[in-house]
From TrEMBL, chain A:
Residues 161-355 form the ABC transmembrane type-1 domain. The keyword Zinc does not apply. One of its GO terms (cellular component) is ATP-binding cassette (ABC) transporter complex. InterPro entries: AA_ABC_transptr_permease_3TM (IPR010065), ArtM/GltK/GlnP/TcyL/YhdX-like (IPR043429), MetI-like (IPR000515), MetI-like_sf (IPR035906). It is found in: Cell inner membrane; Cell membrane. Belongs to the binding-protein-dependent transport system permease family. HisMQ subfamily. CDD domains: TM_PBP2. This is Amino acid ABC transporter permease. The keyword Calcium does not apply. Keywords: Cell membrane, Membrane, Transmembrane, Transmembrane helix, Transport.
UniProtKB/TrEMBL annotation, chain B:
It comes from the Bacteria. Residues 95-387 form the ABC transmembrane type-1 domain. It comes from Azospirillum oryzae. Keywords: Amino-acid transport, Cell membrane, Membrane, Transmembrane, Transmembrane helix, Transport. InterPro entries: AA_ABC_transptr_permease_3TM, ArtM/GltK/GlnP/TcyL/YhdX-like, MetI-like, MetI-like_sf. Belongs to the binding-protein-dependent transport system permease family. HisMQ subfamily. The chain crosses the membrane at residues 28-47, 101-121, 188-206, 227-248, 268-287, 371-390. Pfam families: BPD_transp_1. GO terms for biological process: amino acid transport. This is Amino acid ABC transporter permease. GO terms for molecular function: transmembrane transporter activity.
Length: 368, 399
């Protein structure tokens, strides 16, 4: 019997060419059945007919950043990046004074640095809140000015990307504590508190954001005592906070519901008061679970800031639209929308990738 | 010592609530009175300010304006409307336009979204990549930007009416939108609609009878094919019985615009395309996660029981996938309906746009915003109630 067992292994045979390598990959991924083969060929035909003209328009036949609209109109075969070249600073910073535009640029830099740093879980410590506070103070100084020799800039002149980021980040930061209270209220045993929170959340979630922006822009002046007025930006910001609080409350409620009952009972058993129980036991766990849905809320919130164009603020979309209304640049909407679309996309896509990564990382901790 | 006092103080005396802040029941009552009091106080502050401001600016209150003449035109309407009609009727036009774009959008987005969601799971690498590229691009760009793009594509990118594109005979594409031929008016079309309805009811009846018979006797009846035959066959028979009319109402260029045929305005095209494509990307993700949520073992078990491919999908996979799909799908439908309010930005006369014109003309901002919010709440709640009912129907029946 032992004679049949070879003690020295033969060198490994190369697998047959149709199970590994590029040909096998093609066979198993593109041509694994007759209908997949047909689909593959159809899709390839579609791509071949669509991609070269698009690349031609985008790059090959395009006019550079220094071209002007007359040249572009004569030869309309490609994109006219001269539009972006001329309007870049207006689209990015709105009507912020020309010579001071390094200030909004720096603001964008500060926000991006803060957001990127916040993605690192090593920074999820209480002291990082102070970093954020310092960053926001710096942003306020840069945008408004009026101190340290910076000229004062009214917030009606703010626009472009800084406005988009300010509306979403400040909205989120203020709405976050409110949403925690709303989520706790919705899970509360006290009927009156529960009814109030449920009514608020469902009311806000049942209506479109536009109606809230309308409310803020046309009804808020009526709500306030005579003589007190709130500027447009703050009104929009209030609408965003109300809106974000309701949606984030639902994300946090999801986290609260995922905490097993034993955690509540154990905290009660230790004799902790309600707020001690929430602060030390429940919320740290619930918020960790709620972070991915919160990031998703933030993404949709970031996209929704574009609605402020309807009440007359110039965020990134607003400035692009205003740039298009320049008579000499009419009709170059493809370039404008592609450009800002890419900016929005970079922000949203990186946030959604981050949220997916976070979800994987956090799940790993939960699994045994 | 500390625990001892806590337990003795914390326990309510038998038979009632003690008037002490250390009694949880009493404390809860105090908190609630405080919270409700604060809300009422803030509410009263706002209402009194508002009344004061309204009186100061002499703005009328109440909904009397709904009966007054609107005096503004509306681009497209499902019911008869002229500027001489009342604000109330104008608002109704707006509500119907919102419902029109929402219903068509929901149907199209569900179909496209399902196809893309299935395509993302395809074993064909190219198709799966293409579908996921679509989802990743569309989901991460603001819907308003997409609407602006589609609207500009039609109103700027297409030729003026006189040089309208004519891709298929009778179909015209221009800055004024799409014109397509429709069948000329004939009583047979209405009868066909009735026949279709009868066919659907009959198909439903047959499927119930077939199921009852199968439960009783175990005999199978091809209810699906019979139903399909009824739904398609009855209208065709009606059409043939009505003399099979083929006359079409073809759009013709007369003067500066087209007459005849059916028109799709650029605004409607932009809002419908934008909303459909945007929501389809989200629905694709919902469908994909629903399908992946069903364990592969379920398919294997069904095969082991001898079920062929079709019934496996219909009886085993789909019922389980739908349980995962329906709740997030509901919120996507609600989102589409709420996002239809973006129509305001491109000039499609939906309810927000018409309420906005109304409140600008009458100055009655509070009534206008209340009407917008009230209508959306009613529509949202109706969709939620229907989808909750459906969800309960397909939910897992547990012991």
């Amino acid at each position: 019997m032992t004679d049949n067992v070879q003690s020295v292994g033969l060198p490994d045979e190369r697998p047959p060419a149709n199970t590994v390598g590029p040909i096998a990959w093609l066979r198993s991924n593109l041509f694994n059945s007759w209908y997949n083969a047909i689909l593959t060929i159809l899709v390839l035909a579609l791509l071949v007919s669509a991609i070269p003209p698009f690349v031609g328009w985008l790059l090959v036949n395009a006019h550079g950043f220094d071209s002007n609209s007359t040249v572009c109109r004569q030869d309309a075969g490609g994109a006219c990046w001269g539009f972006i070249g001329e309007k870049l600073r207006f689209i990015m910073f709105g009507m912020f004074p020309w010579d001071e535009q390094w200030r909004p640029l720096l603001t964008i830099g500060i926000f991006i640095a803060l957001l990127v740093a916040s993605c690192d879980r090593r920074f999820w410590k209480p002291w990082f809140g102070l970093v954020w506070a310092a960053g926001l103070t710096l942003v306020a100084i840069l945008m408004w000015g009026g101190v340290f020799g910076l000229t004062y800039v009214e917030n009606t002149l703010w626009g472009g990307l800084p406005l988009t980021i300010i509306l979403s980040v400040i909205g989120l930061a203020v709405a976050f504590p409110v949403s925690i209270l709303l989520a706790l209220g919705r899970r509360s045993d006290m009927p009156a508190v529960k009814v109030l929170c449920v009514t608020y959340i469902e009311l806000i979630r049942g209506v479109p954001l536009i109606s809230l922006l309308f409310m803020a822009s046309v009804m808020l002046p009526l709500f306030l005592p005579n003589g007190v007025s709130v500027d447009k930006l703050l009104r929009a910001q209030i609408a965003f906070i109300m809106f974000a609080a309701a949606y984030m409350a639902e994300a946090i409620r999801g986290g609260l519901q995922a905490i097993p009952k034993g955690q509540y009972e154990a905290a009660d058993g230790l004799g902790l008061s309600y707020w001690q129980k929430m602060r030390k036991i429940i919320l740290p766990q619930a918020l960790a679970i709620a972070i991915p849905p919160l990031v998703n809320t933030f993404i949709s919130f970031f996209k929704d800031t574009s609605l402020v164009i309807i009440i007359g603020l110039y965020d990134l979309l607003g400035t692009a639209k205003a740039a298009l209304s320049d008579p000499s640049w009419r009709g170059f909407y493809r370039e404008a929308y592609l450009f800002i679309g890419v900016i929005y996309w970079i922000f949203c896509f990186s946030m959604s990738k981050y949220s997916q990564k976070l979800e994987r990382d956090l799940n790993r901790g939960h699994r045994r | 010592m500390a625990t001892e006092t806590r337990t003795t103080q914390g326990a309510p005396p038998p038979g009632g609530v003690s008037i002490s802040l250390s009694d949880p029941t009493f404390r809860a009552i105090v908190y609630q009175i405080l919270v409700v009091g604060a809300v009422v106080l803030v509410g009263w502050f706002l209402v009194s300010n508002t009344l004061d401001n309204l009186a100061r600016r002499s703005i009328a209150t109440g909904y009397d304006f709904l009966g007054r003449e609107a005096a503004f035109g509306i681009g497209e309407s499902l019911i008869d409307y002229s500027p001489k009609d009342t604000y109330g009727r104008a608002f109704l036009v707006g509500v119907l336009n919102t419902l029109k774009v929402s219903v068509i959008g929901i149907l199209l987005a569900t179909i496209i979204g399902t196809l893309i969601g299935v395509a993302r799971l395809s074993s064909n690498w190219l198709i799966a990549k293409l579908a996921s590229t679509y989802v990743e691009i569309i989901r991460n760009i603001p819907p308003l930007l997409q609407l602006f793009f589609w609207y500009a594509l039609v109103s700027d990118g297409l030729p003026p009416v006189r040089q309208a594109l004519n891709p298929i005979p009778g179909v015209f594409l221009s800055q004024r939108g799409l014109r397509v031929p429709v069948p000329a008016p004939d009583p047979v079309w209405a009868n066909m609609g009735i026949a279709l309805l009868v066919g659907i009811l009959a198909a439903w009846g047959v499927s119930r009878w077939a199921r009852a018979r199968q439960d009783r006797t175990g005999q199978l009846f091809p209810a699906g094919w019979t139903g399909l035959g009824l739904i398609i066959g009855l209208p065709i028979l009606t059409w043939l019985a009505g003399g099979a009319p083929l006359a079409m109402d073809v759009p013709k260029l007369t003067g500066f615009n087209f007459t005849g045929g059916a028109a799709i305005s650029p605004e409607f095209f932009a809002i419908l395309t934008g909303l459909t494509l945007y929501t389809a990307a989200f629905i694709a993700e919902v469908v994909r996660s629903g399908i992946t949520a069903v364990n592969w073992g379920q398919t294997e078990a069904a095969r082991a029981l001898g079920l062929p491919g079709g019934p496996t999908l219909r009886l085993v996979i789909l019922p389980q996938a739908l349980r995962v799909i329906v709740p997030p799908l509901t919120s996507q439908y609600l989102n589409l309906m709420k996002n239809s309010s973006l129509a305001l930005a491109i000039g499609y006369p939906d309810l927000v746009s018409i309420a906005n014109t109304t409140l600008n003309q009458t100055g009655q901002a509070i009534e206008g915003v209340t009407m917008i919010m009230g209508t959306y709440l009613v529509i949202s709640l109706s969709i939620s109630i229907f989808m909750n009912w459906y969800n309960k129907r397909i939910a897992l029946v547990e012991r």
